[in-house]
Amino acid sequence: MDNNIVNDYKKSVDKTISAYKKYLSTVKTGRAHTAIFENLMVESYGQNMPLKQLATISTPDASTVVIQPWDSSTLKEIEKVILKENMGFTPQNDGKTIKINIPPMTEEDRKKVVKLMKQETEKYKVTLRNSRKKANKTIKDMEKDKIISEDESKKLEKDIQKVLDESTKKIDELFKTKEKEITSI
User: Which CATH superfamily is domain 2-26+106-183 in?
Assistant: First the structure.
């Protein structure tokens, strides 16, 4: 039973790190990448669908994203969504594809993005710490109810802290990698 607490915490940590990676994939770097557009929701066939289910999204070079819908009737709707999202891009519709030129980021833009990314990263770390707090409370309750001994309680708390330390380190590494990608020209 007591190992379940650590395993549940690890699952929670894995979900948080996975969500953080997904967030990082959407951060603008000044280079073209498809992740920015993949999950835009487009009205098609009477329902909202992610863009990646309606089109091929590619990057023929470092500053261009090309969106080629499988059904050209969705082209206008895709273009409308990109403009509505106010991402700072102007889509160019040629009747078959949408080309988006990714403008190079200024030094000021890069600093803003890194600053926002730091704030968001801290939110993910807080989520990890809150999960630890919840796991530790469960451990304390089990100790209080005499389900586990004080020694087991201390060991479990130590295991939970170890997982937190490793996951925080992982998030910091992911942040540093993305920061380097943003600040390098």
Answer: Ribosome-recycling factor (1.10.132.20)
